[in-house]
């Protein structure tokens, strides 16, 4: 997943709102979000069918976790899939405990990444440059994370996104139609869009997720486009998400 927008504690009744596009090779197999029970922990997440991990998920405690690769220009070589690190974090009951879990991992066990962990109380970014972990608590507000964040590589996408997100900031969370419009925007060249199309590279936006985790769990929502959001409709998976949260 390569574009992650997180609104953390911006609105009192909506402490977590997320919009995320996953960019990946077009031939990499995956399945859409489902309820998973693993090690006694319930969570709702899609699955990478090649390595068994995931790129985004919410657990029964209301903990949201998502990962993007960190661009290096080098081929992956670490022994363990980064998607499994998301499952590790989702096994915890809070963002603070998820940070501690990730920090216990050897820095060279996974290829470079940016990992975001958010609950209703706090938000954290742990990123790895291939040699060590770096930790940044995230203040209340909007945060944009891509594979090129934190000076990983030049990009215009992050600055453009921050400018567009400013218009979404208001006394109430934005209408979902405004968020979906943002996630469907293309760029020139194609890799600079929020919705990425690079067919010559066999690469592009494979799915899109919009997640709302309000204080009132009965209003939690997960909208999912299983394909490029500019050509695939978002499907409301909120009932499945709420059932998982209620069971917690």
General description of the model:
The model has no long low-confidence stretch (mean pLDDT 94). A hairpin with a 4-residue loop joins β7 and β8. The protein has one domain (3-247): Penicillin V Acylase, Chain A. The radius of gyration is 16 Å and the shape is globular. The strands form 2 sheets. Strands 1, 2, 10, 11, 12, 13 and 14 form a 7-stranded antiparallel β-sheet that branches. Strands 3-4-5-6-7-8-9 form a 7-stranded antiparallel β-sheet. The protein has helices spanning 82-90, 95-103, 157-166, 176-183, 238-247, and strands spanning 3-11, 14-25, 30-38, 41-48, 56-59, 64-69, 113-118, 123-128, 133-137, 141-146, 197-198, 203-213, 221-225, 235-236. By secondary structure, the protein is of the alpha+beta class.
């Amino acid at each position: 997943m390569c574009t992650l927008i997180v609104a953390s504690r911006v609105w009192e009744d909506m402490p977590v709102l997320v919009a995320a596009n996953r960019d990946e090779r077009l031939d990499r197999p995956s399945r859409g979000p489902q309820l998973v029970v693993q090690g006694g922990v319930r969570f709702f997440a899609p699955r990478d069918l090649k390595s068994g991990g995931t790129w985004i998920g919410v657990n029964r405690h209301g903990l949201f976790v998502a990962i993007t690769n960190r661009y290096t220009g080098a081929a992956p070589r670490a022994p363990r899939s980064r998607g499994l690190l998301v499952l590790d974090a989702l096994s915890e009951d809070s963002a603070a405990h998820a940070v501690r879990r990730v920090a216990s991992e050897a820095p060279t066990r996974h290829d470079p990444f940016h990992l975001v962990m958010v609950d209703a109380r706090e938000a954290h970014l742990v990123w790895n440059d291939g040699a060590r972990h770096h930790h940044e608590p995230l203040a209340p507000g909007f945060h944009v994370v891509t594979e090129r964040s934190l000076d990983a590589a030049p990009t215009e996408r992050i600055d453009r996104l921050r400018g567009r997100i400013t218009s979404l900031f208001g006394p109430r969370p934005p209408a979902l139609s405004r968020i979906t419009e943002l996630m469907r925007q293309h760029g020139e060249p194609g890799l600079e869009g929020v919705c990425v199309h690079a067919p010559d590279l066999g690469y592009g936006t494979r799915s899109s997720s919009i997640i709302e985790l309000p204080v009132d769990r009965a209003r939690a929502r997960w909208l999912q486009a299983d394909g490029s959001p500019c050509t695939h409709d978002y499907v409301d998976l909120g009932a499945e998400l709420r059932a998982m949260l209620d069971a917690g």
